[in-house]
Amino acid sequence: MFTRTTHSIVHFDAPFALKGVDKTLPAGDYDVDQDEELIDGLSRAAYCRVATYIHVPARSSKLGTRQVFPIDHFDLEAALLEDQSRPG
Question: Domain of life of the organism in this record (predicted)?
Fold first, then answer.
């Protein structure tokens, strides 16, 4: 099975929490990686997401130690929607 990883950056304006991460994270830009597997047998290439990871701390942090946490993609999407819906 062929697997690929896609990288993106997400932005939070306010502190947020995610299941799988043991603390509330501060606002900022975060690196996110998604692993996807190729779905065999289709007439064109299609991929299925199998894992999502967030890199902590935020990109702007001066801390040298970084951790990568496996998270649920839908929890991340929900946290982003909640952050965007806050009055600014």
Answer: Bacteria
Residue type, 11: H
How would you class 48 by CB atoms within 10 Å of its CB: exposed for 0-12, middle for 13-18, buried for 19 or more? Answer: exposed
Global pTM reads 0.88
**Tens digits of residue pLDDT in 30-42:** 999 999 999 988 7
Q: Are the C-beta atoms of residues 32 and 53 closer than 8 Å to each other?
A: yes
Beta bridge partners of 37: 3, 48
Q: 12: domain range?
A: 3-85
In whole angstroms, how far apart are CA 66 and each of 33, 40, 58?
14, 35, 9
Q: What is the pLDDT of residues 21-74, one digit of tens each?
A: 999 999 999 999 999 999 988 788 889 999 999 999 999 998 888 999 999 999
